[in-house]
Design goal:
The chain is α/β, with parallel strands linked by helices and 102 residues long. The protein is built from 4 helices and 3 strands.
Length: 102
């Protein structure tokens, strides 16, 4: 194999890797899924888990009108939609914050 062959293979693998990451990006996937639904509004959004902040952002962007309430339960902080409430829990072992979140 030549250097050019290696570079082409590397570029192909990096392209596939980037495409895979984009396909599972929680904000974009949630937004896309909700845009196909016709939800009677206003709705309450509850997002739980590591991807919860991103999912909440995607939901807020996809809804035709503002959500009645947005609750995010996660083990870390990220940018949240305006008005969203965040409850932090621990991971992987539950603690008092996890009980509050539940």
């Amino acid at each position: 194999m030549t250097v050019t062959d290696h570079e082409q293979i590397r570029a192909a693998f990096l392209g596939a890797y980037r495409a895979a990451l984009e396909a599972v990006e929680p904000e974009a996937v949630t937004r896309s899924a909700l845009e196909t639904l016709r939800l009677p509004g206003p709705v309450t959004v509850i997002a739980i888990g590591k991807a919860a902040p991103a999912m909440a952002r995607g939901a807020a962007m996809a809804l035709p009108e503002p959500a009645a309430d947005i609750l995010v339960i996660s083990d870390h902080t990220e940018l949240l939609p305006v008005g969203a409430r965040l409850i932090l829990g621990s991971h992987p072992a539950p603690d008092a914050e996890s009980v509050t979140a539940g």
